[in-house]
Structures are given as structure tokens and as C-alpha cells.
């Protein structure tokens, strides 16, 4: 089950300048974004744990996104 809706993916692609968007393009974007998001979240949790915290902060997410 995906967390991101096809409508949201379509909006993102259209905001990128596309006039028409296929369902397969939406599905592909969802797959890529969810995988990247999982990787960022795992890294952010590791940063929080390393800092001795149980709470993931915005800074953890931003730092993980840069790695």
C-alpha cells in the first residue's frame, strides 16, 4: 500500500511543467519518492538515536536528506 496518492503525484508532475501525465508515470514517481523517503527516515532515526533522542526532529530529516 502506498502512502502517496496518485492525485498528489500527478500534481507534483504537473507542477514540474507536464501538461499530460500517465498513470504509470504517477506510479513510478510514487515508487521512487517512497523509497527515497524510507532511506531518509532510516538515516534520520539513526541520527536521533546517536544524539540520545527518541524523537526525530526536522534537523534530523534535513541532515539525512543531504547525506
Description:
This protein has 67 residues and is mainly α. It has one domain (6-66): Orthogonal Bundle (Histone, subunit A), CATH 1.10.20.10. 70% of the residues lie in helices and 0% in strands. The protein contains three helices and no strands. The longest helix is centred in the middle third of the chain and has 28 residues, at 23-50. The two termini are 27 Å apart. The model has no long low-confidence stretch (mean pLDDT 96).
- End-to-end span in angstroms? 27 Å
Low-confidence stretches: none
The CATH topology name reads Histone, subunit A
The H-level CATH homologous superfamily, spelled out, is Histone, subunit A
Main sheet makeup: none
SS strand fraction: under 5%
Per the principal axes of the C-alpha atoms, what is the gross shape?
A: elongated
- Helix content estimate: over 70%
The number of helical elements comes to: 3
Rg, please?
A: 15 Å
CATH domain class: Mainly Alpha
Structural category is mainly alpha
What's the structural domain tally?
Answer: 1
Let me know the average pLDDT: 96
Oligomer: single chain
CATH architecture: Orthogonal Bundle
Total DSSP E strands: 0
Order of helices and strands: HHH
Amino acid at each position: 500500500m502506498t502512502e502517496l496518492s496518485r492525485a498528489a503525484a500527478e500534481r507534483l508532475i504537473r507542477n514540474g511543467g507536464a501538461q499530460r501525465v500517465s498513470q504509470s508515470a504517477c506510479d513510478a514517481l510514487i515508487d521512487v519518492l517512497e523509497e527515497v523517503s524510507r532511506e531518509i527516515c532510516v538515516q534520520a532515526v539513526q541520527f536521533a538515536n546517536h544524539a540520545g533522542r527518541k524523537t526525530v526532529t526536522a534537523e534530523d530529516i534535513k541532515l539525512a536528506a543531504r547525506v
